[in-house]
Amino acid sequence: VERSRGLGDVYKRQVYGYASDIKVDRKVKSRERISKNEHRETIEVKITNGKKEDIKVNVFEHPYGMWEIIEHNYPFEKVDANTVKFELPVKGKGTTTLVYTVRYRY
């Protein structure tokens, strides 16, 4: 399923899919206020592969405002100002867990 929505001259495309043998569980593990203008969050994304073959899964996250990823266990690519892409390998019948911490300033 593909949906587009216009935002002025910019179009954002979101692609949704369903696979009964791949499970994704996303949790905010911690949220901490560091100062009046700063806080950080630690996010965990667990991907379980029910297939026999190994797969690669692209995880797109959308931090907001002034942000910086300060800890991560997989490399990432900054796609644009509000999008980060992680490419995760997941073994057949296995689980991969992405954990990253993002600091927000405002």
Describe this structure in words.
0% of the residues lie in helices and 72% in strands. By secondary structure, the chain is mainly β. The strands form three sheets. A four-stranded antiparallel β-sheet has the order 3-4-9-6, with no helix packed on it. A three-stranded antiparallel β-sheet has the order 5-8-7, with no helix packed on it. A two-stranded antiparallel ribbon has the order 1-2. A hairpin with a 2-residue loop joins strand 3 and strand 4. The protein is elongated, with a radius of gyration of 16 Å.
N-end to C-end Cα span: 35 Å
| Weakly predicted, low-confidence segments | 1-15
Report the order of strands and helices.
Answer: EEEEEEEEE
The largest beta-sheet arranges its strands as: 3-4-9-6
Largest sheet: 4 strands, antiparallel
Strand content: over 45%
What are the salient characteristics of this protein?
single chain, 106 residues, mainly beta, four-stranded antiparallel beta sheet, three-stranded antiparallel beta sheet, elongated
What's the short version?
The protein is mostly beta strands. The protein contains no helices and 9 strands. It has strands at 2-7, 10-15, 22-35, 38-49, 55-61, 66-72, 76-80, 83-90, 95-105.
Please outline the helices and strands.
Blueprint (H helix, E strand, L loop, with lengths): L1 E6 L2 E6 L6 E14 L2 E12 L5 E7 L4 E7 L3 E5 L2 E8 L4 E11 L1
Antiparallel strand pairs: 1-2, 3-4, 4-9, 5-8, 6-9, 7-8
